[in-house]
Amino acid sequence: MIRLKLQDDFDAKRIADSGQCFRWKETGEGRFRVIHGRNVLYLTDHGEGDLEFECGEEEYRKIWHDYLDLDEDYAAVRAMIDKDSDPFLYAASCNEKGIRILRQYPWEALISFIISQNRNIPAIKHSIELLSDMAGEELPDPAGGICHAFPTPQALAKLSDEDLTQCRLGYRCSYVKEAAVSVLEGKIDLDALAKDPDDERCLETLMSMKGVGMKVASCMLLYGLHHMDAFPVDVWVKRILEEHYPGGYDRERYRPYNGVFQQYMFAYYRSLHG
DNA sequence: GTCCAGGAACTCA
DNA sequence: TGAGTTCATGGA
User: Fold this and answer.
1) Strand C positions within 7 A of protein Cβ atoms
2) Which residue is nearest to nucleotide C8 (CA to C1')?
3) In strand B, which positions have an atom below 7 A from any protein CB?
4) What is the CA A232 to C1' C7 distance in angstroms?
5) How many CB atoms lie within 10 A of CB A222?
6) Residues 6+ apart with CB under 8 A from A114
7) How far is the CA of A212 from the C1' of B13 (A)?
8) Are A227 and A147 in contact (CB under 8 A)?
9) Residue of A110, A76, A124 whose CA lies nearest to A209
10) Which of A11, A142, A180, A268 could cross-link to A92 by cystine, CB 3.0-4.6 Å?
11) How far is the CA of A17 from the C1' of C3 (A)?
């Protein structure tokens, strides 16, 4: 077990509810089960940066420290906001302080956000659980029993249309299947994408896939490839921009962290209206 | 029952 | 290039 006292922003519940990841599960007061690749972690957030990791030192250093993006200074990122010239974003960042941009695996992020289109977050989570239970590797759950990893491209490519339909994917079945085949056949090279720092080029490659438009590609860029300047615009962000930035939102002002600010705004606006 | 969802493809002007 | 329509389905 590892006990940490972070000086920087961290709020497990806000991260779990942020809509960037779909497999965090709250199992008790401030305690979450997190599945990342083939690793399963129980993490308890006692507040004020007081964190408890139910794993060994080596696993923490090799897996979780990086996944949780603990080398980034989010307080410094928030300090870029000018309270007077951008009161909405300032309020959002104060209220949603503690959200971090996780370093999820590109493959899981890609499929998760293909699945996400035109659905609410609970429905997305449900499909991803069904898919993982159906085709993901069995992993021992430290708390007892088993859980499932997110399925590999091989495993997904093998599923029949009927299998995929059973996961309540609707018309997205073919998108998921085709993405799996593209990655398997090397038409989409996720390792190469992960090394490519160029936002535009990555977006273009991602959008060559069926079912991947600007929004899904931007989510993949931000949450799967950790391009912190990516700026996904969904129905909520669109409303925010129309309502609070009728004269236009200045992305230049917030480079290279537009993705972080987008995440604050998204969460804040939903907490006000959701 | 109705409306909407972290949209994208397709159609038609 | 742009606006409207369709898609499958669960959650609220």
Assistant:
1) 7-12
2) A170
3) 4-9
4) 22
5) 26
6) A172, A175, A176, A179, A211, A212, A216
7) 26
8) no
9) A110
10) A268
11) 34
Q: Could you tell me which of A129, A137, A136 has the C-alpha nearest to residue A166?
A: A129
Give the CA-to-C1' distance from A52 to B3 in angstroms.
42
Q: What is the pLDDT along chain A (274 residues), one digit of tens a residue?
A: 999 999 999 999 999 999 999 999 999 999 999 999 999 999 999 999 999 999 999 999 999 999 999 999 999 999 999 999 999 999 999 999 999 999 999 999 999 999 999 999 999 999 999 999 999 999 999 999 999 999 999 999 999 999 999 999 999 999 999 999 999 999 999 999 999 999 999 999 999 999 999 999 999 999 999 999 999 999 999 999 999 999 999 999 999 999 999 999 999 999 999 7
In whole angstroms, B7 C1' to A107 CA is 19
Please return the burial class of A90, using the count of CB atoms within 10 Å of its CB with bins 0-12, 13-18 and 19+.
Answer: middle
∠ CA A63-A68-A70, rounded to 5°: 100
DSSP lists the bridge partners of residue A51 as A4, A45
Amino acid present at A246: P
